[in-house]
Amino acid sequence: MNPGYSSPASDTWETAEIPASEHPDYSALVDSRWLKDVLRPLLIAIMSTSLLLGPVALGRMITQEERYYLLLPFCFGVALEAVYTRNWLAQPHLRRHRDVRIQVGELSLWLVVLRLLTWYIRGQVIDLAAVRAWLYEPGSFFDLLFLFGILMTVVVWKFAGLIAGIFIDLGLRPDELVDYKAAHRERAWVQALPVDRQALLEQYVELWMWGGVLLVFTAAVGRVRFEPQPGKLIGLRTLGLGPDLILALVSYYLVGLVLLSQGRLAQLRARWHREGTPGIAQVARRWNRYALLAIFGIGLLASLLPFGSTYGLALIIGAVIQAVLFLYFLVFALITGLLSFLLGLFGVAPPPTAPSPQP
User: Fold this and answer.
1) Which residues of 60-87 are buried (b: 16+ CB within 10 A; e: fewer)?
2) How far is Cα 214 from Cα 202, in angstroms, rounded to an integer?
3) Which of 269, 267, 260 is nearest to 292 (CA)?
């Protein structure tokens, strides 16, 4: 081949650019209505933070420090960020960023913020003497509050990320959003691969139940207090549940039920989309409204149940029953007296009394 010859095809291959109009449009392959929902990330963050209330209350009972509760708003932010990051990375054009480097960087950033927060909570001043002490004794860098915060941060970040990943998979996938009839008329018979959303929902329920076991266990341990007494080998005293643990238990299970209803909606939504059922958005809005009303109504009834001693509640219920019986007999006596008075006005004599039997 002549060295001075250049192929027109090769020149075109090297210099041609794809027009902007021919770039693939990924927006049609994203279930944006499902991923951009505002309520679900808040619910996942609330449930993840409620899971930590039990261990935080247990740590406060052991150390007798109230500063552990200051970690809860931080953990709520960690859970919320984990959910939104998973939703953002669920877009098809960000697939190459879904690796362990993103997760390591994300968690490392939160641990740096946690270290600054624990210094602020303790009121510790960072100077050259403190840095010199860390260099001579690296273990002094990790105080008890920071170690406890690391554990809570990793747990809430992982838990919220797992829940968010399950609900992302419950949404409509790109192959389900492709309109094969309009895009490929010769392949109109092609259908998306079915997704086992029932297995995903069961995975969520299993994760939710194990989290509930952890919360109930820490709440039960937090009710026991060690108080040595003379004449007893072991002095243990049970306490009632505090308002923080009651709030954690009720909110964790109620929010879990709401998310379970969201998972069931995702199952029906995928089937309706596959069958071409109209009005899916309207049904989804009504579903969320009625599910919230029903579940929080159950929560309102559950808040009336006793979590500690039932003696005071028994007195209240007994007084209410006595009041109802008193009103019933009072109304019955008034009606009977009124009927007797009316019968006396009309001259109706009372029926004769039967003679007593002879011995």
Assistant:
1) bbeeeeeebebbbebbbebbbbbbebbb
2) 19
3) 260
What is the rounded radius of gyration, in angstroms, for the C-alpha atoms of the chain? 34
Contact in structure between 327 and 275 (CB atoms under 8 Å) = no
Place of tokens 């009124």: 338
CB 238 within 8 A of CB 307: no
Task: From 286, 269, 319, select the one nearest 33 (Cα to Cα).
Answer: 269
292-331 as b/e, with b when 16 or more CB fall inside 10 Å? eeebeeebeeeeeeebeeeeeeeeeeeeeeeeeeeeeeee
CA distance 74 to 159: 15
pLDDT, greater one: 347 or 13 = 347
Among residues 282, 268, 273, 263, the alpha carbon closest in space to that of 177 is found at 273
* Tokens found for residue 29: 């392959």
Segment 323-354, tens digit of pLDDT: 888 888 888 888 888 877 777 776 555 556 55
> For residue range 213-229, what is the model confidence (pLDDT) as tens digits?
888 888 777 666 555 45
- Residue 134 neighbours by CB under 8 Å, 6+ apart: 140, 141
**Cβ-based neighbour number of residue 55 at 10 Å:** 21
In percent, how much of the chain has pLDDT > 90? 14
CA count, 13 A, side-chain hemisphere, 76: 10
Beta-bridge mates of residue 238: 224
In this structure, which amino acid lies at residue 252?
Y
Report pLDDT for 305: 62
